[in-house]
């Protein structure tokens, strides 16, 4: 272990340990600046992750038709869309939603959303099964009393038991669990408001089981997936024409989930830019705080500088010492900022529908920025310290 | 061991440069204890700073152990201060946030050829030698004036210097502590280390082999002869 590589860091640490309040006050700007930077990166990474998950789960060419009135969409229309646009439509599925009290034996977790689906649904929304199977065409045709439970709902209904094969009561009816979904919290983003619900707390049943049989049972949503995003424009026009023709029978909304997500991400980007600007200002203010503190340090420690020079320290040693001191408080502030930023990102994820993702890269960026602030804003005071004349400062002893 | 020839120091001034002294000559053999006396303002401390390589002369030459140091670059002067010279100041300044052992080990760190453990071991031994073995991890502020000066001597000896420069080392000490410190300086000289001490105290000067006055820009031996 040799000077100045390591010992200056030990000295710097000891210095700030004895001047903790001074150090704390001078790094508040760096703490908030780095915290803001980490938050910006976490929001950005979360948005990208959400977009990737959405594209992975839905595909970029997915369109959802939502019925505002009961009866505006039905199974016959679903069949017609597939028939009218055979070259564009890759897959389509119809969904009906209900709400009901669910329970199993003595477990009554409350109301849950029932989702009436056909056999296409699982593959269209990339649902992964933990165990069992999904709804089959046979179930839809024969209105089988079977169901697939979301992971969280399954745990709520049967906290200590195997879920598969159990009987679930919904409203006045019952169904036997034939499949349990894998926990999807890291795979499918919560797209509530864009036509797709998080699958965690849902009970999936054959659509005919909850809405009745026949060829024209009512649907709440029809999801159409075009072969790719390039076909989305043409397919969307055709869909809108079909929807216009149905207007008499009720309002139908056309939702393009990827577009909704992109709009949301544009809003997030504006927030990110604003936060990035504020972060930059905070980092400059923080750096200035450190520089101010270090300048005061140089003035109040002239005698120490003179003493060190008398004992053999070169100007470079003095520069290394003072830059290290600035870097130590900047990095300490940066580490506190990284923790603050990660906690803020978690909090933002909880209180809003924004997905945030703290990554090691964001932490590393925060660390690097704080290091840079220490070097940049510690250099000038260090040069001032090195310029102190040993003879003059020894007169102050 | 220590030789100066034609040494002068002038400070720049907007109207006229201020000349502290000029054309000083002095020769001090190894192991001699020299006491530098004289009225205030005559340049004793300035001369000590020049001998300590903390400042550069405006004129003249300075040899230390046969090497001319007056023309050395900054980095080399720092190395000379570190390797060959030990300082004892009047107020025995220490770095307040380091403990006593770390303070005494500072010259070792700036020596660059010692590892940390060896530096601490030597600092601990030097403090033991001056009776401060029980104070290794105390902050300098917790020490008495006498203890601080003893610690300062320990620090001055860290790199086994050939020259110890002391600027009014007994200025803040009582009679007993002054006597102990001067005895220690005397022992250093007897062991072969050259000691140059600036003092106003005639009793302190009595511990030296040689008393030289700096007055009216000249160095004079106590017997009146030019040094």
UniProtKB/TrEMBL annotation, chain B:
Molecular function GO terms recorded: ATP binding; ATP hydrolysis activity; transmembrane transporter activity
Protein name: ABC transporter ATP-binding protein
GO cellular component: plasma membrane; transmembrane transporter complex
Keyword terms: ATP-binding, Nucleotide-binding, Transport
UniProt similarity note: Belongs to the ABC transporter superfamily. Macrolide exporter (TC 3.A.1.122) family.
SUPFAM superfamilies per UniProt: P-loop containing nucleoside triphosphate hydrolases (SSF52540)
InterPro entries noted in UniProt: AAA+_ATPase, ABC_transporter-like_ATP-bd, ABC_transporter-like_CS, ABC_transpr_LolD-like, MacB-like_ATP-bd, P-loop_NTPase
Top-level taxon in the UniProt lineage: Bacteria
Residue ranges annotated for the ABC transporter domain, each copy included: 2-227
């Amino acid at each position: 272990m040799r000077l100045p590589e390591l010992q200056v860091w030990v000295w710097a640490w000891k210095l700030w340990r004895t001047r903790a309040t001074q150090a704390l006050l001078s790094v508040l700007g760096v703490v908030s600046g780095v915290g803001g930077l980490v938050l910006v990166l976490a929001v950005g990474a979360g948005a990208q992750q959400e977009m990737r998950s959405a594209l992975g789960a839905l595909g970029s060419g997915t369109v959802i038709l939502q019925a505002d009135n009961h009866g505006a969409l039905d199974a016959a229309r679903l069949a017609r869309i597939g028939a009218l646009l055979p070259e564009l439509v890759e897959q389509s599925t119809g969904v009906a939603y209900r709400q009901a009290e669910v329970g199993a034996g003595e477990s009554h977790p409350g109301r849950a959303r029932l989702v009436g689906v056909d056999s296409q649904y699982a593959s269209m929304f990339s649902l992964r099964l933990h165990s069992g199977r999904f709804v089959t065409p046979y179930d839809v045709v024969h209105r089988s009393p079977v169901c697939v439970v979301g992971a969280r709902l399954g745990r709520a209904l049967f906290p200590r038991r195997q879920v598969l094969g159990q009987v679930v009561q919904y409203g006045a009816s019952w169904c036997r669990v034939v499949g349990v979904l894998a926990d999807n919290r890291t795979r499918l983003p919560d797209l509530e408001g864009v036509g797709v619900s998080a699958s965690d707390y849902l009970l999936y049943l054959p659509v005919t089981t909850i809405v009745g049989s026949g060829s024209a049972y009512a649907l709440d949503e029809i999801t159409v997936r075009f072969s790719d995003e390039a076909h989305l424009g043409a397919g969307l026009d055709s869909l809108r024409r079909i929807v216009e023709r149905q207007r008499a029978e009720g309002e139908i909304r056309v939702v393009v989930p990827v577009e909704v997500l992109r709009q949301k991400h544009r809003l997030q980007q504006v927030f990110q830019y604003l936060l990035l600007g504020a972060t930059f200002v905070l980092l400059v203010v923080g750096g200035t705080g450190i520089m101010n503190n270090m300048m005061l340090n140089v003035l109040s420690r002239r005698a120490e500088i003179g003493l060190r020079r008398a004992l053999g320290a070169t100007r470079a040693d003095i520069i290394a010492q003072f830059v290290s001191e600035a870097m130590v408080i900047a990095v300490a502030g940066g580490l506190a900022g990284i923790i603050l930023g990660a906690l803020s990102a978690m909090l933002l994820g909880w209180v809003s529908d924004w997905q945030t993702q703290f990554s090691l890269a964001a932490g590393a960026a925060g660390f690097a920025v704080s290091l840079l602030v220490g070097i940049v804003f510690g250099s000038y005071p260090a040069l001032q310290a090195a310029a102190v004349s040993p003879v003059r400062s020894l007169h102050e002893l | 061991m220590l030789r100066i020839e034609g040494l002068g120091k002038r400070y720049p001034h907007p109207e006229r440069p201020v000349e502290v002294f000029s054309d000083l000559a002095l020769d001090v053999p190894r192991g001699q204890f020299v006491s530098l006396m004289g009225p205030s303002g005559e340049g004793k401390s300035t001369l000590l700073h020049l001998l300590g390589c903390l400042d550069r002369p405006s004129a003249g030459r300075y040899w230390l152990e046969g090497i001319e140091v007056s023309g050395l670059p900054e980095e080399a002067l720092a190395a000379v201060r570190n390797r060959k010279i030990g300082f004892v100041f009047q107020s025995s300044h220490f770095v307040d946030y380091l403990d006593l052992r770390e303070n005494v080990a500072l010259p070792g760190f700036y020596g660059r050829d010692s590892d940390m453990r060896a530096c601490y071991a030597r600092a601990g031994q030097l403090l033991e030698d001056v009776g401060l073995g029980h104070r290794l991890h105390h902050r300098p502020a917790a020490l008495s004036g006498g203890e601080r000066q003893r610690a300062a001597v320990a620090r001055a000896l860290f790199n086994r210097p050939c020259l110890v420069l002391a600027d009014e080392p007994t200025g803040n000490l009582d009679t007993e502590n002054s006597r102990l410190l001067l005895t220690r300086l005397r022992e250093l000289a007897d062991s072969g280390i050259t000691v140059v001490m600036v003092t106003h105290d005639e009793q302190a000067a009595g511990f030296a082999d040689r008393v030289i006055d700096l007055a009216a820009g000249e160095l004079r031996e106590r017997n009146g002869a030019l040094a």
